[in-house]
């Protein structure tokens, strides 16, 4: 009996998260035994160059020795105390140093919890019930956020999830991404009822679909005008696309010349907290709340909500919005997060950007060479290869759903056979790391021509 068959007897679908199943590409998922730098090793000892990066956290590559040491040292001091620790304070300070607008930070264990809490906080702060999300954006699997969710829900072609009550679903309004008029219409239709707009400021869960220029600033302006909060879900982009996340990347594009890193932001902290209640709507106006996950936990279960001090202070025990967690701010997870952020300097981001743009160029070239219709879309170092005939950029979920999933599946399996692990869905971003050196990149590049022929159906 294979390990997968064994797994299926005791675990639904054999996986603990649906995105790990090979549902849309076919075949059995690969079981991983260990990972190091840019490489994964399966239970048969086979090596793969990894472009999944644990779905985002592995910015430094797998099992970075300093991160592992930090976790081992923390483990030796005790696994969990259920009491505050200095490491939580240090990690919150590190987050705020990179994102000063996250004036206060609360740690939880998953991105799902972070987004769920941000929504509750927005409702508590405004006294309103309705939430607006964008079709194709994924904000974790809490009931209210599963409508037209991207990621695994998109991969499975589901409109949402069974088990969500009509009452809950009815409090989430779904709007097409990048559609200013649709959002205007929703605010007009529900005056004084919308608590928050939640967005991935650079969506990567319907494949990478970057925001139109000015779209995030538009979101800031319209929410401020209507007294709703704006939530940037940077669970995926935070500390991955830039030292200060997508928010930092957009701001640095506005404030500094291209290719110049923003200076350390610590000195801005005191002037920006608490942030003003109504934003100016300028191109670099911050959201009220952020959610972070993935990189901030360095591969351990950790995520965060951060934002305006006056809003964050509504959380219990200071305020009436309840949020809790036995393992929140866990000492092993905070140790991994601190070590990861300490190591993630501008050289790390420059390395990830460079390997990402080299790989995007190589993928384009290999697919053009063979005549495979496709479109590569990127947001920072994140990118997706959409298979299919696209005569214009993909700007929303409806367009992303027109991709040729069968061509992707053929490409995916040819890459896997050649020892390259891609996310098993065309609705996901490829994740690279600072450990992807020339050797790792070359192995991906060498696999491309064969996979391109396979995508065409000519393998
Ligand atoms: C943008 C975004 N938000 C939220 C989540 C949920 O995070 P988690 O899987 O840690 O619950 C994810 C990914 O899973 C994500 O990509
Ligand atoms: N981009 C999609 C995810 O990161 C989801 C991971 C998971 O649910 O396992």
From TrEMBL:
<comment type="subunit">
    <text>Homodimer.</text>
</comment>
<keyword id="KW-0663">Pyridoxal phosphate</keyword>
<dbReference type="GO" id="GO:0008483">
    <property type="term" value="F:transaminase activity"/>
</dbReference>
<dbReference type="GO" id="GO:0005737">
    <property type="term" value="C:cytoplasm"/>
</dbReference>
<protein>
    <recommendedName>
        <fullName>Glutamate-1-semialdehyde 2,1-aminomutase</fullName>
        <ecNumber>5.4.3.8</ecNumber>
    </recommendedName>
</protein>
<comment type="pathway">
    <text>Porphyrin-containing compound metabolism; protoporphyrin-IX biosynthesis; 5-aminolevulinate from L-glutamyl-tRNA(Glu): step 2/2.</text>
</comment>
<keyword id="KW-0963">Cytoplasm</keyword>
<keyword id="KW-0627">Porphyrin biosynthesis</keyword>
<keyword id="KW-0032">Aminotransferase</keyword>
<dbReference type="GO" id="GO:0030170">
    <property type="term" value="F:pyridoxal phosphate binding"/>
</dbReference>
<dbReference type="InterPro" id="IPR004639">
    <property type="entry name" value="4pyrrol_synth_GluAld_NH2Trfase"/>
</dbReference>
<dbReference type="Pfam" id="PF00202">
    <property type="entry name" value="Aminotran_3"/>
</dbReference>
<dbReference type="InterPro" id="IPR015422">
    <property type="entry name" value="PyrdxlP-dep_Trfase_small"/>
</dbReference>
<dbReference type="GO" id="GO:0006782">
    <property type="term" value="P:protoporphyrinogen IX biosynthetic process"/>
</dbReference>
<keyword id="KW-0413">Isomerase</keyword>
<keyword id="KW-0808">Transferase</keyword>
<feature type="modified residue" description="N6-(pyridoxal phosphate)lysine">
    <location>
        <position position="294"/>
    </location>
</feature>
<dbReference type="GO" id="GO:0042286">
    <property type="term" value="F:glutamate-1-semialdehyde 2,1-aminomutase activity"/>
</dbReference>
<comment type="similarity">
    <text>Belongs to the class-III pyridoxal-phosphate-dependent aminotransferase family. HemL subfamily.</text>
</comment>
<dbReference type="InterPro" id="IPR015421">
    <property type="entry name" value="PyrdxlP-dep_Trfase_major"/>
</dbReference>
<dbReference type="InterPro" id="IPR015424">
    <property type="entry name" value="PyrdxlP-dep_Trfase"/>
</dbReference>
<dbReference type="InterPro" id="IPR005814">
    <property type="entry name" value="Aminotrans_3"/>
</dbReference>
């Amino acid at each position: 009996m294979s390990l997968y068959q064994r797994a299926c007897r005791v675990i639904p679908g054999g996986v603990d998260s649906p995105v790990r199943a090979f549902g849309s590409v076919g075949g059995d998922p690969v079981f991983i035994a260990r990972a190091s730098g840019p490489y994964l090793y399966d239970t048969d000892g086979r090596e793969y160059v990894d472009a999944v990066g644990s779905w985002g956290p592995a910015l430094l590559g797998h099992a970075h020795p300093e991160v592992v040491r930090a976790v081992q040292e923390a483990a030796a001091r005790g696994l969990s105390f259920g009491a505050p620790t200095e490491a939580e304070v240090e990690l919150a300070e590190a987050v705020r140093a990179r994102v000063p607008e996250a004036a206060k930070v609360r740690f939880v264990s998953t991105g799902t919890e972070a987004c769920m809490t941000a929504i509750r906080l927005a409702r508590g702060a405004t006294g309103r019930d309705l939430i607006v999300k964008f079709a194709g954006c994924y904000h974790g699997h809490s009931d209210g956020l599963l409508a037209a969710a991207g990621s695994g829900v998109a991969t499975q072609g589901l409109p949402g999830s069974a088990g969500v009550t009509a009452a809950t679903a009815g409090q989430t309004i779904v709007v097409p991404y990048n559609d200013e008029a649709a959002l205007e219409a929703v605010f007009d239709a529900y005056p004084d009822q919308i608590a928050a707009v939640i967005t991935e400021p650079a969506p990567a869960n319907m494949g990478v679909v970057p925001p139109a220029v000015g779209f995030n600033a538009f979101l800031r302006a319209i929410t401020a005008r209507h007294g709703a909060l704006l939530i940037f879900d940077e669970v995926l982009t935070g500390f991955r696309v830039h030292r200060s996340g997508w928010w930092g990347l957009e701001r640095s594009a506005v404030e500094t010349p291209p290719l110049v890193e923003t200076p350390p932001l610590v000195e801005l902290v005191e002037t920006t907290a608490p942030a003003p209640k109504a934003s100016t709507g300028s191109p670099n106006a911050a959201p009220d709340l952020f959610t972070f996950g993935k990189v901030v936990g360095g591969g351990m279960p950790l995520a965060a909500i951060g934002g305006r001090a006056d809003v964050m202070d509504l959380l219990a025990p200071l305020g009436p919005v309840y949020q809790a967690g036995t393992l929140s701010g866990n000492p092993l997870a905070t140790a991994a997060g601190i070590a990861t952020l300490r190591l993630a300097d501008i050289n790390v981001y420059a390395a990830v950007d460079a390997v990402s743009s080299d790989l995007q160029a190589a993928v384009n070239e290999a697919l053009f060479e063979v005549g495979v219709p496709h479109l590569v879309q990127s947001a920072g170092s994140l990118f997706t290869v959409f298979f299919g005939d696209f005569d214009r950029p993909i700007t929303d979920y409806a367009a992303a759903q027109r991709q040729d999933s069968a061509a992707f599946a053929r490409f995916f399996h040819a890459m896997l056979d050649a020892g390259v692990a891609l996310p098993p869905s065309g609705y996901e971003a490829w994740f690279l790391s600072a450990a992807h050196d020339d050797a790792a990149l070359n192995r991906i590049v060498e696999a491309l021509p064969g996979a391109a022929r396979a995508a065409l159906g000519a393998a």
